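Worked example 3 (structure in, sequence out).
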């Protein structure tokens, strides 16, 4: 019911929760603004070769996004960037170029997606794009058996996997990275508050 003691209590709890979240976010961003991140190297010859093998012409928006993301990655300040675009506008290619740049410096990249089907689609695209390069990609979702998932987690912790794509399974406590350099969240709005808290802790 609207009105009454119970309603007032619920409204007050919601207000307090919102205030706490705002304070936590302000503290997090202040900490990240002063933190020193990893500055990635300039593009390598392999990066240029990888990009030239993209079978389509980049749109002006893709080109701008790629240039800005690379500039962010080469900056020692930790990167937080939101990339918006409709389905079919080429966000995946932008993400794969960032992953390739990350791996060139011996770091690992993770792509977090909301559904198993999307994880598999991205994995297939990665296998196709990375085919001619010494990059080990993997997928972590419920499509794998428990034994396969354990093997993937072990390889990830040992640094034998360069790029991993997965569902919420990537947020499990037993998922460890040897050296995570880039985290990409696809369809960020599909993840709940609880998952975002886990992602903040991971970052």
């Amino acid at each position: 019911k609207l009105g009454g003691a119970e309603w007032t209590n619920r409204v007050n709890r919601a207000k307090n929760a919102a205030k706490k979240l705002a304070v936590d976010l302000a503290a997090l961003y202040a900490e990240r603004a002063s933190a020193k991140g990893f500055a990635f190297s300039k593009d390598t010859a392999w990066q240029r070769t990888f990009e030239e093998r993209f079978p389509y012409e980049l749109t002006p928006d893709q080109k701008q996004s790629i240039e800005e993301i690379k500039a962010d990655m080469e900056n020692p300040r930790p990167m937080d960037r939101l990339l918006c675009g409709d389905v079919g506008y080429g966000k995946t290619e932008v993400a794969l170029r960032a992953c390739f740049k990350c791996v060139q410096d011996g770091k690992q990249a993770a792509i977090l997606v909301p559904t198993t089907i999307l994880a598999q689609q991205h994995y297939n695209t990665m296998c196709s794009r990375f085919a001619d390069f010494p990059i080990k990609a993997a997928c972590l979702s419920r499509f794998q058996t428990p034994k396969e998932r354990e093997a993937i987690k072990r390889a990830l912790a040992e640094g034998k996997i360069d790029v991993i794509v997965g569902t919420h399974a990537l947020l499990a406590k037993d998922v460890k990275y040897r050296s995570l350099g880039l985290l990409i969240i696809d369809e960020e709005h599909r993840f709940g508050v609880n998952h975002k808290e886990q992602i903040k802790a991971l970052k």
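Notes: The helical segments are 4-34, 45-52, 60-73, 91-104, 116-129, 146-157, 193-202. The mean pLDDT is 91.
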